[in-house]
Amino acid sequence: MQSLLDEYGQSHKNSTNKLIHWICVPLIFFSIVGLIWTIPHGVLNDLTGLESPFVNWASLLLILLLVYYVTLSVPLAFGMAAFGLLCLWAANTLSIAAPWPLWSISVVIFILAWIGQFYGHKIEGKKPSFLKDLQFLLIGPAWLMHFIYKKLGIPY
Fold first, then answer.
1. Please, which residues have CB within 8 angstroms of residue 86's CB and are 6 or more apart in sequence?
2. Stretch 67-92: mean pLDDT, rounded?
3. For residues 91 and 27, what is the distance between their CA atoms, to the nearest angstrom?
4. Mean pLDDT over all residues of the chain?
5. 66 or 44: whose pLDDT is higher?
6. 104-150 confidence digits (pLDDT tens)
7. How far apart are CA 134 and CA 19, in angstroms?
């Protein structure tokens, strides 16, 4: 895990780019959860026999992502699980209470956050890591989580 975090960090040294990432990476993660939340999921309800808004494709995707994170770092996987649950809660809340459809909110967030990301990399003067290896799309959120763990003194 540390080698992936270190490699990701090589193109994220500029303080402005880091700040942009602290804002945009979680927003991109959430926007993807929000978009996937809106995919009809009746088949999952039928398969599980559960009638819950949380039995959906976004929850299933997050479970699969957690399997990936567990293979890299169990402690970081717990942090990513907590963030994933927060995103699911936010998606559910917005799908019920927002004046606009969740998919449209998610699309706007996704586009604006990626504009921010690319602007940050323009400032940095380095290409985004995922252009080298798509795996880094999943490492970005864990990279931010590892800073939180460091600050709290939690080994990862």
1. none
2. 98
3. 12
4. 94
5. 66
6. 999 999 999 999 999 999 999 998 888 788 889 999 999 999 999 99
7. 22
- pTM of whole model > 0.90? yes
Helices assigned H by DSSP within the chain: 2-9, 15-37, 42-48, 57-72, 74-97, 102-124, 136-152
DSSP state of 11: T
83 burial (CB, 10 Å; 0-12 / 13-18 / 19+) is: buried
- Helical packing angle, 136-152 and 57-72, nearest 10°: 70
Residue 105's contacts (CB-CB under 8 Å, 6 or more residues apart) are 34, 94, 98
Q: How far apart are CA 118 and CA 100, in angstroms?
A: 27
Residue 141 identity (one-letter amino acid): P
Instruction: Give the CA radius of gyration of the chain.
Output: 16
Of residues 77 and 131, the one with the higher pLDDT is 77
Can you tell me the distance from the alpha carbon of 6 to that of 12, in angstroms, rounded to the nearest whole number? 10
The CA distance from 64 to 1, in Å, is 18
- Percent pLDDT > 70 in the chain is 100
The angle at the Cα of 6, spanning 124 to 58, to the nearest 5 degrees, equals 85
| CA atoms in the 13 A half-sphere facing the CB of 80 | 29
